[in-house]
Amino acid sequence: MEEKRFGKLIGEGSERFCYENLDNPSTCFKISKTGTSLQTIREVRYFHFLEKKGKYPKFFPKFYGTFKKGEQLVLEQEYLRTNDQVEAVELRQFITRASETDFQKIEDFLEKTKQEMIQMNVIVSDIRTGNIVLLFNHDKSITRLVFVDGFGSPEFIPLPIYCPFFGKRKIERQWNKFMKKYHAEKALRLRQLHQ
Predict the structure, then answer these.
(1) Alpha carbon distance 41, 32 (integer Å)
(2) Which of 3, 42, 88, 158 sits a CA distance of 20 to 30 A from 165?
(3) What's the pLDDT at 101?
(4) How open is the CA angle 59-134-101, to the nearest 5 degrees?
């Protein structure tokens, strides 16, 4: 296999580092830190599970496979970045500059995404404003909302991914927790706007 070339560090979590792909600007590499590849393994299994079911959610980045780099496991996925066609902005960052009109657009898109998750029974176990990227057109309309981390269900027996009844309950529970945090971040921004 041809050696993959890693670019600059673009993100770091508790378990993984994320790097640009020097050979393909539309993908990035998530490298599990030594001895902590459980999240990556779970996510890869979930991507394969969804593929077998014929499910390709628009709110997930495209998955391109995995490979080993020494003792580390590397996941290659779509890199959501600003280019000539779109502006990519992390939701947490966008909230800090959003207008009241922007919040209505965001919330409409969030609700639409939640309904798609329930309809498709697609689970995201770590919904946070820092794990969501918004893609904007030149006219500043939102074209896509994408989760960039936390795919699948961490339970030992992940009933939510197999059974829509449990899946809906998990999605609703995770969504309610997320919306509380979202509204707290929104309230900070609205206070700034009204000062």
Answers:
(1) 10
(2) 42
(3) 93
(4) 120
